[in-house]
């Protein structure tokens, strides 16, 4: 028999409903698995009691003959950027170490309302700033994947949702929440051979999510396949009056609408995404993706997104600018850490607290953001970047005249080794080159596993869709998933 | 308007004044959170998670605050911007939990408007540059602990309107008149309670001086001045200081200053060089604010009659200019007067009565017109009794005093205490005869030409009638008795 922990969200949900196993058995199986995988450092806090409580409720409901909630008894992981009532929420920072919110984020509350339980709070890049999960104050997460080159170099699980990606690919949880500001769901999904979708900006409430860059931050699910992502997203999305940028729209029945038949759909291939020095294997996988989509009935067209090359620089102005302001609230006055050197005045307390509470990457981005918003530089940087952002969005709007979806690689490389890029921030930032444009445009995009590179590491393909067309994105991703037949999984070395 | 000039050692100077008034919007909830806004509550009891800037908390605009600011804009005939935006003003301070204030720099809610003021009987139009809405900060308390400061976040996030005038004022009196008029308008509209002593309204006073006819000089900004009188003092003191500096060969630096009412001086807080770089940028948590026509229509329809229009109406009803000005200055007085007219009182007499009798009584009792012991309806009844001749003015005063004490209706008092004035000629003639008999010597003096004694006979007759005689009738009958007899 298959192990329970090998099952995904849909299989667990259905199995609990039919009584194939109890929710408690499911919770226990994952709790044990989490406890055996601490080497991966995927969790900052484990919350077995939370998962067990949800399991008890699901089993009781079933015993009473009640209709089970959509995610009844399914234990998941929660990225530690979502505030969880009474459970430490840190954004992987020293600043918020020990901080226990008195409130529950809208997205996590929706998941609990849907019957899910929480296995723990997942590690991430500090304040979601990073592409390798190496900026966490609680230590880097290690990917369960290893190169098949005889070496044992620990690999990056991607970032910032690296705890989520690592935990899902290691079967520590069937699904997890992620957040995506410039690729933080999609790139880690690609690095670890799982699926992840960033929905349209405004689909998921940002209320209770520790802010990085407000105009870009968007929550989304990560899971092992497209269907599980659809199920999770249905539970997470929905209008929230507490978030002024939340979309006042009904949540579509994405799972029910899944359909891999792409006849009548046009898929655009943006020529500007053929970047220099992209590994041949990624080039080849992209072509393979084109063939799969053709096979699913889609028509392939070449399109142009001419301002793509300006997306990354614009992103690294806008995101730090917003972050520099969003992170001003961590000042040592009301909550979180406070460094108060002997005889320090208010300014000195701020300086000491923020120097000790923020890691180097966070400090770097605060400095960049402060700089680009400064008098005399604002127009040259921030205003210019906003103009670029408008042009990027227009690029996509023009593309939609010729196609319904876009196919691109998710990241320009497979997972790299820990430490390999952490000394060179610019090389690290390049990881986001394919994911950032759709973040700037606020449109839905998904990464789905496509295959393995020569070292046996997963590579992802990205489907980008029109605003609000998560269904189209999920369907094309499903078509790829069915044809890719991606069954590879990391060996259990931990 | 006579031109206000300050004589310096080297000649005459003109003062140029602009005011930035911060007015707390009347609303049950803060600008971006649902927290309450009660004044004087225990520290940190009016604070939501948003106001305390907890991680992940988001601002959501409060429609009522926006509505009040729009109505205020409409009341000064200003351009209402259907599209506006919120910006973040970034700086660190312990009373500012977010590390930024949400304000409107680039695209304010309300554009240019005007306010008419009157100084020494002449009117002048003062331009308003803009009105924008923004969050207030919290308050530091330095007196709670020997070495530490405490923070009270009750005010944090409370909605303010910043009303920025053009540099159109030229004297302390104009600055005072502008602030009074603005306060009056806000109170009419109901968008701000205007309680300056509670900090609901405070002004940043921009002052510069120049030789008449020359370009503007360098200005200073004196922060948070919280009364009309202090604003006038600030203008005067700061203008004199600047003239002194310039005439001694110095130059004025653009800086922020503080008014010290105890010492009667302004002091430098920080110069332009030390000014913060606020790094304003559009708040990414908030979408641009779009106002639709239905919303604007409702705002306009809900505006009350404003001071200028009310005053014109009172004048047209025959109220004296002085009374019209007094009655319209405070919205509560105007409301009382309107209710009085509504209840049938005649405008000129009612205006006189309110400004003299009622205000006098309220002053004596230390009460506001909103809780006047005599309602407008009762007052109208009292004035009606005078108009129809049932009460003389003297009797009316007596009745009013009793009304103040008992709260009874005037008709009841007149009835119960027999205070009705009489025009019964027989009764009056009988008393006159007695008075004349008892004062035969004075009658003789009067008849030999001492006309002034007429008043004496009137007084004696009224006294004999216990004040209840109709004075007109008394006059008539006395004349007949003395001159005709």
From TrEMBL, chain A:
Does Membrane show up as a keyword for this record? no
Q: Name one GO cellular component term.
A: glutamyl-tRNA(Gln) amidotransferase complex
The reaction(s) annotated as catalysed by this protein in its Swiss-Prot or TrEMBL entry are: L-glutamyl-tRNA(Gln) + L-glutamine + ATP + H2O = L-glutaminyl-tRNA(Gln) + L-glutamate + ADP + phosphate + H(+)
The entry lists its GO molecular-function terms as: ATP binding; glutaminyl-tRNA synthase (glutamine-hydrolyzing) activity; transferase activity
**Subunit structure comment from the entry:** Heterotrimer of A, B and C subunits.
Q: What is this protein called?
A: Glutamyl-tRNA(Gln) amidotransferase subunit A
Naturally occurring in which organism (per UniProt): Sphingomonas turrisvirgatae
**NCBIfam families on file:** gatA
Give yes or no: UniProt keyword ATP-binding. yes
PROSITE patterns, sorted: AMIDASES
| Keywords (A to Z) from UniProt | ATP-binding, Ligase, Nucleotide-binding, Protein biosynthesis, Transferase
Query: Any idea of its EC number?
Result: 6.3.5.7
Query: What top-level branch of life does the organism fall under?
Result: Bacteria
By sequence similarity, the record places it as follows: Belongs to the amidase family. GatA subfamily.
Residue ranges constituting the Amidase domain according to the UniProt record: 25-474
Summarizing the function annotation, the protein's role is: Allows the formation of correctly charged Gln-tRNA(Gln) through the transamidation of misacylated Glu-tRNA(Gln) in organisms which lack glutaminyl-tRNA synthetase. The reaction takes place in the presence of glutamine and ATP through an activated gamma-phospho-Glu-tRNA(Gln).
The Gene Ontology biological process terms listed for this entry are: translation
Q: What class of enzyme is it?
A: ligase
UniProtKB/TrEMBL annotation, chain B:
- Among its keywords, does the record have Protein biosynthesis? yes
Gene Ontology BP terms: glutaminyl-tRNAGln biosynthesis via transamidation; translation
Chain segments annotated as coiled-coil in the UniProt record = none
What's the catalysed reaction? L-aspartyl-tRNA(Asn) + L-glutamine + ATP + H2O = L-asparaginyl-tRNA(Asn) + L-glutamate + ADP + phosphate + 2 H(+); L-glutamyl-tRNA(Gln) + L-glutamine + ATP + H2O = L-glutaminyl-tRNA(Gln) + L-glutamate + ADP + phosphate + H(+)
Gene name as annotated: gatB
Regarding protein family, the annotation reads:
Belongs to the GatB/GatE family. GatB subfamily.
**How does the annotation summarize its subunit structure?**
Heterotrimer of A, B and C subunits.
EC number of this enzyme: 6.3.5.-
User: Pfam families in the record, alphabetically?
Assistant: GatB_N (PF02934), GatB_Yqey (PF02637)
Q: Where does this protein come from, organism-wise?
A: Sphingomonas turrisvirgatae
**What does the UniProt function comment say about this protein?**
Allows the formation of correctly charged Asn-tRNA(Asn) or Gln-tRNA(Gln) through the transamidation of misacylated Asp-tRNA(Asn) or Glu-tRNA(Gln) in organisms which lack either or both of asparaginyl-tRNA or glutaminyl-tRNA synthetases. The reaction takes place in the presence of glutamine and ATP through an activated phospho-Asp-tRNA(Asn) or phospho-Glu-tRNA(Gln).
Asn/Gln amidotransferase domain residues are 335-482
Q: Which UniProt keywords apply?
A: ATP-binding, Ligase, Nucleotide-binding, Protein biosynthesis, Transferase
Recorded GO molecular functions are: asparaginyl-tRNA synthase (glutamine-hydrolyzing) activity; ATP binding; glutaminyl-tRNA synthase (glutamine-hydrolyzing) activity; transferase activity
- Its protein name is Aspartyl/glutamyl-tRNA(Asn/Gln) amidotransferase subunit B
């Amino acid at each position: 028999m298959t192990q329970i922990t090998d099952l995904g969200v849909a299989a667990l949900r259905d199995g609990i409903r039919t009584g194939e196993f109890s929710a408690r058995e499911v919770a226990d199986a994952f709790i044990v698995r989490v406890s055996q995988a601490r080497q991966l450092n995927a969790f900052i806090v484990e919350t077995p009691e939370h998962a067990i409580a949800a399991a008890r409720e699901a089993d009781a409901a079933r015993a009473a003959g009640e209709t089970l909630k959509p995610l009844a008894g399914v234990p998941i992981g929660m990225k530690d950027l979502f505030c969880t009532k009474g459970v430490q929420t840190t954004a992987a920072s020293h600043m918020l170490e020990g901080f226990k919110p008195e409130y529950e984020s809208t997205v996590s509350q929706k998941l609990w309302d849907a019957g899910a339980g929480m296995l723990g709070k997942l590690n991430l890049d500090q304040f979601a700033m990073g592409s390798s999960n190496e900026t966490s104050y609680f230590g880097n997460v290690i990917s369960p994947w290893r190169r098949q080159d005889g070496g044992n170099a620990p690999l990056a699980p991607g970032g910032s949702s690296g705890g989520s990606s690592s935990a899902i690919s290691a079967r520590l949880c069937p699904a997890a929440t992620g957040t995506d500001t410039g690729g933080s769901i999609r790139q880690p999904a690609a690095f670890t051979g799982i699926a992840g979708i960033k929905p349209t900006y405004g689909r998921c409430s940002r209320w209770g999510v520790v802010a990085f860059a407000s105009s870009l931050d968007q929550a989304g699910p990560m899971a092992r396949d497209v269907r599980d992502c659809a199920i999770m997203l249905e539970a997470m999305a929905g209008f929230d009056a507490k978030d002024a940028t939340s979309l006042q729209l009904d949540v579509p029945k994405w799972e029910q609408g899944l359909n891999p038949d792409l006849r009548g759909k046009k898929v655009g291939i943006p020529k500007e995404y053929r970047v220099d020095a992209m590994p041949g294997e990624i080039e080849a996988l992209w072509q393979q993706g084109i063939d799969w989509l053709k096979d699913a009935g889609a028509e392939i067209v070449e399109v142009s997104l001419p301002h793509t090359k300006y997306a990354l620089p614009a992103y690294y102005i806008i995101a730090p600018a917003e972050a520099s302001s969003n992170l001003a609230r961590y000042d040592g006055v009301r909550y979180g850490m406070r460094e108060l050197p002997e005889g320090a005045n208010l300014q000195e307390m701020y300086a000491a607290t923020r120097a000790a509470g923020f890691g180097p990457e966070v400090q770097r981005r605060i400095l960049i953001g402060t700089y680009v918003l400064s008098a005399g530089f604002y127009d040259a940087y921030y205003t210019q970047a906003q103009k670029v952002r408008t042009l990027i969005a227009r690029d996509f709007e023009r593309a939609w005249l010729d196609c319904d979806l876009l196919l691109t690689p998710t990241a320009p490389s497979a997972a790299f080794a820990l430490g390999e890029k952490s000394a060179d921030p610019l090389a690290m930032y390049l990881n986001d080159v394919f994911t950032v444009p759709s973040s700037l445009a606020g449109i839905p995009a998904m990464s789905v596993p496509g295959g393995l590179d020569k070292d046996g590491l997963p590579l992802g393909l990205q489907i980008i869709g029109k605003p609000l067309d998560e269904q189209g994105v999920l369907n094309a991703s499903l078509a790829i998933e069915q044809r890719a037949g991606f069954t590879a999984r990391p060996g259990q070395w931990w | 308007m006579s031109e206000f000039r300050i004589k310096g050692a080297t000649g005459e100077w003109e003062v140029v004044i602009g005011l930035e008034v911060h007015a707390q919007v009347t609303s049950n909830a803060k600008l971006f959170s649902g927290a309450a806004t009660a004044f004087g509550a225990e520290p940190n009891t009016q604070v939501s998670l948003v106001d305390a800037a907890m991680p992940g908390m988001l601002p959501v605009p409060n429609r009522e605050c926006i509505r009040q600011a729009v109505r205020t804009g409409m009341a000064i005939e200003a351009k209402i911007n259907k599209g506006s935006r919120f910006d973040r003003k970034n700086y660190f301070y312990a009373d500012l939990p977010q590390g930024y204030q949400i304000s409107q720099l680039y695209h304010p809610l309300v554009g240019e408007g005007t306010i008419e003021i009157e100084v020494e009987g002449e009117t002048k139009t003062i331009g308003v540059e803009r009105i924008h809405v923004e969050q207030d900060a919290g308050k530091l308390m330095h007196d709670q602990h020997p070495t530490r400061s405490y923070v009270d976040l009750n005010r944090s996030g409370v909605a303010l309107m910043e009303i920025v005038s053009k540099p159109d004022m030229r004297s302390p009196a104009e600055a005072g008149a502008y602030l009074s008029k603005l306060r009056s308008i806000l109170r009419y509209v109901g968008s701000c309670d205007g309680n300056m002593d509670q900090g609901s309204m405070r002004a940043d006073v921009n002052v510069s001086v120049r030789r008449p006819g020359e370009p503007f000089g360098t200005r200073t900004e004196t922060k948070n001045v919280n009364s009309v009188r202090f604003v006038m003092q600030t203008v005067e003191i700061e203008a004199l200081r600047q003239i002194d500096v310039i005439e001694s060969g110095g130059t004025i630096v653009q800086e922020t200053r503080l008014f010290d009412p105890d010492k009667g001086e302004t002091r430098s807080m920080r110069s332009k060089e030390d000014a913060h770089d606020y790094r304003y940028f559009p708040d990414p948590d908030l979408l641009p604010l779009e106002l639709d026509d239905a919303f604007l229509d409702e705002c306009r329809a809900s505006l009350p009659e404003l001071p200028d229009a009310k005053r014109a109406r009172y004048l047209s009803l025959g109220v004296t200019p002085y009374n019209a000005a007094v009655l319209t200055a405070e919205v509560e007085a105007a409301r009382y007067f309107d209710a009085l007219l509504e209840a049938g009182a005649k405008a000129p007499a009612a205006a006189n009565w309110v400004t003299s009798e009622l205000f006098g009584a309220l002053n004596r009792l230390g009460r506001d017109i909103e809780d006047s012991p005599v309602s407008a309806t009762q007052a109208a009844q009292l004035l009606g009794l005078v108009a129809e001749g049932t009460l003389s003015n003297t009797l009316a005063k007596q009745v009013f005093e009793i009304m103040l004490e008992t709260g009874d209706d005037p008709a009841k008092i007149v009835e119960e205490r027999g205070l009705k004035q009489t025009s019964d000629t027989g009764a009056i003639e009988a008393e006159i005869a007695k008075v004349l008999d008892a004062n035969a010597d004075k009658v003789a003096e009067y008849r030999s030409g001492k006309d002034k004694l007429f008043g004496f006979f009137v007084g004696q007759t009224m006294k004999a009638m216990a004040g209840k005689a109709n004075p007109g009738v008394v006059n008539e009958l006395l004349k007949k008795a003395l001159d005709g007899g």
